[in-house]
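Hi support team,

I submitted a single chain yesterday and got back a structure, but I'm not sure I'm reading the token output correctly. Could someone confirm the output below corresponds to the sequence I sent? I've pasted both exactly as they appear in my results page.

Thanks,
R.
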Amino acid sequence: MLSNFYVLKLLEEAGLPAGVINFVAGDAGLITSELLTHKEFAGVHFTGSTAVSIASGKRSVEISENTDHTLE
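Hi R., thanks for writing in. Yes, this is the structure output for that exact sequence:
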């Protein structure tokens, strides 16, 4: 997880504007629920466990037809 944080910092140092990519660490279920219900949430690219991927995909469809959701 720490390596992901450092990659993000390198991208920002290389010129990627802050906030284009966000690093969020913590309880996956809680974070997923909060993100998918936020009014300014536009989409997510998720890399991680199959269980969280399936759950967030289902929740995304329930909440908004306009949410981009890429699962890997």
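A quick pointer for reading it: The chain has three helices and two strands. Let us know if anything else looks off.

Best,
Support desk
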